[in-house]
Every structure is written in C-alpha cells, then in structure tokens.
Amino acid sequence: MPREYINLFYLLASVCFIIGLKLLSHPRTAVRGNLLGALGMLIAIVVTLLDRRIVSYEVIIAGLVIGALIGAIMAYKAPMTAMPQVVAIFNGFGGGASALAVGAALEEALKGGFIEEIDIVFTVSAAASGLIGGISLTGSGVAFAKLQGLIEERPILLPGRHAINLALLIVCIALSAWLIVNPVFSLPYWLMVIVASVLGILLVIPIGGADMPVVISLLNAYSGIAAAGHGWVLNNSVLIISGSLVGSAGFILTALMCKAMNRSLANVMFAGVGTIVATESESDSIYAGRVKSASPEEVAMLLEGARKVIIVPGYGMAVAQAQYPIKDLTDLLESRGIEVEFAIHPVAGRMPGHMNVLLAEVDIPYDKLKEMDEINPEFKETDVVLVIGANDVVNPLARNSSDPSNPIAGMPILNVDEARSVVVIKRSLAPGFAGIPNPLFAADNCLMLFSDAKKAIMDLANALKS
After folding, report:
1. Whole-number pLDDT of residue 135
2. Is residue 140 classed as helix, strand or coil in its secondary structure?
C-alpha cells in the first residue's frame, strides 16, 4: 500500500482514538467510545499489516493467535472484582512490549535492516521507551501481585531504598547516554532495560494497597509514553498519537486522584503510607464502650422508616462481590417509595472508577451514582447511610485532624457522619489501609453491622421482606 494511503488511514485511526477518549468521559457514552477506540485500533492494525515493509507474516499471525487466546481466557475467567489486577498486568504487557519491540528495531537497524538511519531522534526515543517500558513492566507486575494477594499488600520498606533507587536511575541515564552518544551496538540498551526493570520493582514494593489506584494510573501513563517512544523509533504516526493520548490521560488522572487524597505524587510514591497500623490501645481510646452493634432486623427497621438512603460502596463490597444483592436491596427499597443514591469517592476501590464498574455490572442506573462533590451536601438531609466495606474515605479524622503524621489529614471525604443515621457494614473494627482508627464507628448516630458484606445485604433484604 502506498505510504500516502497508510498515513491517511493512520490519521483516521487517530481521530477514532481522540473522539473515543472524549466519549469515555461520560458513563452514558462510554460504550460507544470504547467501540470507536477499538475500531481505530483495528484500522491501525490492518493498515500496518498491509505495509510493504513487512516481509514475513508467520510470526505476526502466531502472535495474534496466541495473544487472542490469552486475552479471551483472561476476559472470560477474570471476575469484575479482579479488574484492577487485569488493568495492572495489561499496563505491564504494554510497557514490556514497547521495550522489546524497540530493542528488536535497534538490532535490525544495526544490521542495516528496514530502518534507514540511526539518528539522535532514534536513539533518544529508544532510550526513553526502554527505560519507561522496563519500569512499567515490572512495576505493574508488583502491583498485580499486591492486588492479587501474592505478596504483602502493605508497604514493604527496604533499608536505604531511596539511595538505591537513585543509584539505579543514574545507571539507567548513564547507559542511555552511552547508547545515544555511541550507537554501534545494542548492549547498553539491554543493560538499561534490565536495570530499569529492577528499578520498577523497587519503586512499587514500598507502596501500599490504598494507593494502588494512583499507581495503576501512573503505570498506565508510563506504558503510553513507552508506546509513543516506540512510535518515534519506527516513525509510526498512529503509535506516537495513541501513546501520547494514553500517557497524557494517565498523568491527568493521576493528578486528579492525588488531589482527591490531598497528597502529592511524591508522597504517594515515596512516603510508604500504611506501614504503621494503629495499636490496640490507640483503637480502644476511640472505640471502648462507644461502638453500638446492630442486627440485620434492627437495621431493616431503620431502613423501613427512611425516606432517603445513600449507599457508600468500598473495597469490601468488591471483595465480597456484594453488588448483586445491593441491586436487589435497592430495588426493594425503591418499591417502597424510598429514594436511593450511591456516593462514589474518587479513590474508592483499587483502580479509578472501580465502584462505578461494579455497580454498572448489575445495571444500577448511572444517574444514581453521585460523585463526592455532588453528594456531600445531601448527607444532612439523608435518613440512613449504608457504608459497605469503606473505611478511610469516610473517616472524619481526615477532616478534623491537623496532625501531620495522620496519613489522610486533609483528604476530602464523604461526609456520611452528617446523616441522621449511619450503618457501617464491616467484618471487624480493623483499620483501613491508612492504618488508623475511624471515630465514625463510635459516633452517636452510627451502628455497626459486623458481617461479610454480601451476607449482610442479603440478610437485610430478607428482614425487610418479612
């Protein structure tokens, strides 16, 4: 296919990506945006395969078959609750693929293959793609392992970790400079990718599970930048555009989530929040003699007399897969004329939009999912708030504490304590990932329903019916 036609179709694919990304910004148009983005990618793949510079299709077809098979199995097997792990591992695959493909292009160029010239743009782009791709590959692997429970989810703080990371980064920069100044063989590139991969592990190991939404978003941005660097190496415009879109969107989302937690990115990456867990004596000073436990029947009586109920989902809902009985409970309450809404905190769960995805799975209407700034003024007029498996995002210490050692001090929260009654469904009084107690549990207007979230909601529904 002539180069002019290839570039024209690449432009069409890029337009699909841009419009699709815009449509993804609203739940009602997200499905169309996803399909449009997929169409753009299909166009880009088909046009690339028709490029005359591809001389053999055997390996490409084998890769397509194997990749499609793995992707289909993962899509079929992975439950909705495991979407954060899926996103994390796909980020890693994207970054690793860019690093390997750039390395292959470098090897081909050194042999005098299809790449005409190794210039400064080529080497700088190759170094950037290899560095960021290596970090994304192993960093995403660690994030996956933490979310999957394969390694400790709380921060693992190695002695001298900042000095080690700085030394590894300096080594990566030195190897990149070697490649850029003297691109006569590929050894500096592969050494740099290996060192960057070690750096990716050491950067994510000290980050706790509560900060995984930020980490996943940042690694997503890294994989996009690695893809853009790959595009510059291959002089492929659609790869440059799509990688830049992913990278910029990931960085913007990362900044928004850091703002939602009132923390800097440096604090998220290097502070090791969640390492220190509240002691029993510290918790007792807040909870002792003040926590009121309730039964499903008592909570059902409370709900029966309510006019408005707000449900606050958290990670506990995801773990228990309680979204299905929550849908049934919502329908039951609404059949009795009770208004039901959902309050969504920006960093609830383990990835951006985690709660929205789970609730959309059971066909909770989009207009019932209210963001924090929209729903907070309504709590004062709410009869009952059901907090399901959430902790830090409803902790009043974030709003009331000026202690700099408090990891959530200043973080915007859902003001559930302003409602007439609050019911917290939780297995125990154990602290959240920030490692601090929650005074909400001992508040005068709060009842604790100690149970697995799924069982508790089912028991509530049964109690209401009877």
Report:
1. 94
2. helix
